[in-house]
Amino acid sequence: MPVARRLSQRDLARIAKVSHTTVSLALRGDPVISKAVRERIRAIAVQNNYRPDPALAALNAYRLGKRAAPFQGNIAWMTDFEHREDWRRMIQAEGYFEGARKRARDLGYELEEFWTGNPKLPARRASQILIARGVRGIIVAPLPAAGEIALEWDKFSAVAMGYSLTKPKLHMVMNHQSRNMRILVARLAGLGYRRIGLAMPGHVDSRVDHSYLAGFWIGRHLQPAEAEKIPELLAENFDEETLGAWYGANKPDVIITSSTSVYKVIDWLHGKRLHVPRDVGVAVAATPFGDSVISGVSENVHMIGAMAVDAVVAMIHRNETGVPAQPTRTLAEGVWSPGNTIRAQKPPPPAPQSCAA
Predict the structure, then answer these.
(1) What confidence tens digit (pLDDT) does each residue in 55-99 have?
(2) Which CATH number goes with the domain that contains 19?
(3) What is the pLDDT of residue 41?
(4) Are residues 123 and 186 located together in one domain of the fold?
(5) Which of 163, 195, 338, 356 has its CA 20 to 30 A from that of 108?
(6) What is the largest distance, in Å, between two alpha-carbon atoms of the chain?
(7) Residue 247 lies inside a defined structural domain of this protein
(8) How confident is the model at residue 165 (pLDDT cuts 50, 70, 90)?
(9) What is the DSSP string of 271-313?
């Protein structure tokens, strides 16, 4: 019995009386093709039991991977600092941007900066400028503090990097701060540290939705039974006096702090004639971009930037715009970066055993 021939896209094009290119774009959900035409072609495909040929799909993917992607449009890297260039001073932001720009170019898009900090730029005008520039997608870079950005969001595919954008609630891409903190606490405990302390500015934990504190509490709960539980320091006024009072009361053998405060903590310890890491270890749950000195968890900022672009491009292909009814979070787990600011601790000597009389 002869096997029925697989229906091809060219067959669909003849049935729908459109070009082969139109069928290809419609089946991929490309917004270049009108919604009505996309739906008509998909209906014809279902009615005629069309199934894509997996071998041809694999060959096409290979061919696309061997040549530069054609230009698809622009993606905005949206910042909202007081001054246009201030975002570059954020400790990880340049790494996010580099990773995002490279992935965007690989996929046929250009990533261009767009500053919304100008108070004279209303939402409608900002949206018009973006559309005029051929912007189809937006990545909202980490903001200086929790806040909102007014825009005609229904015209764009958009994701936020991190938790700092509080309104609107977009799909979000970021490193897994809670998980990374748990990895860090477990690693330090495995190295023999038994007095693990958390000390960082309170706003650092607040702007990540308290993920650092949550991860620290879980990690501390899972520490060995002999580990001592030191109260955390999350101070809005994270100055030398506050740090000194906390250290004097608790005497941690390792301090977990933020990437923005790590060198401040190290300098303070050195000022007290405490050697790092011989006397006190110092570690972070997100090592500063480009820094191999500080011990902790590396969040791979280039990968996270690329993930943000992948998310936006996927939305563009699905013609998905506006504020989602149910936002999602895509979180990347970090990897251990040994650095030079902790050491392997010697286990405590066993307690002497009493002799039987």
Answers:
(1) 555 555 555 555 567 778 899 999 999 999 999 988 899 999 999
(2) 1.10.260.40
(3) 84
(4) no
(5) 163
(6) 101
(7) yes
(8) very high
(9) HTT--TTTT-EEEESSPPTT--SSEEEE--HHHHHHHHHHHHH
118-135 mean pLDDT: 90
Strands 281-284 and 109-115: unpaired
Let me know if residue 90 belongs to a domain.
yes
Q: At 345, list the tokens.
A: 């601790």
Place of tokens 């201030």: 86
Statement: residue 321 has pLDDT above 50: yes
Asked if residue 312 and residue 281 are part of one domain, the reply reads no
| 124 and 41 fall within a common domain | no
| Number of domains into which the chain is organized | 3
Domain of residue 144, residue span: 74-174+302-327
Q: What is the DSSP string of 215-259?
A: HHHHHHHTS-TT---PPPEEESS--HHHHHHHHHHH--SEEEE-T
What is the predicted pLDDT for the residue at 12? 84
User: pLDDT: is 353 or 183 the higher one?
Assistant: 183
* CB atoms closer than 10 angstroms to residue 215: 24
All residues at 6 or more sequence positions from 200 whose CB lies less than 8 Å from its CB, including other chains: 212, 233, 234, 238, 256, 257, 258, 261
Q: Is residue 56 part of a domain?
A: no
Residue 165 lies in a domain: yes
Verify that 216 and 133 share a domain, yes or no. Answer: no
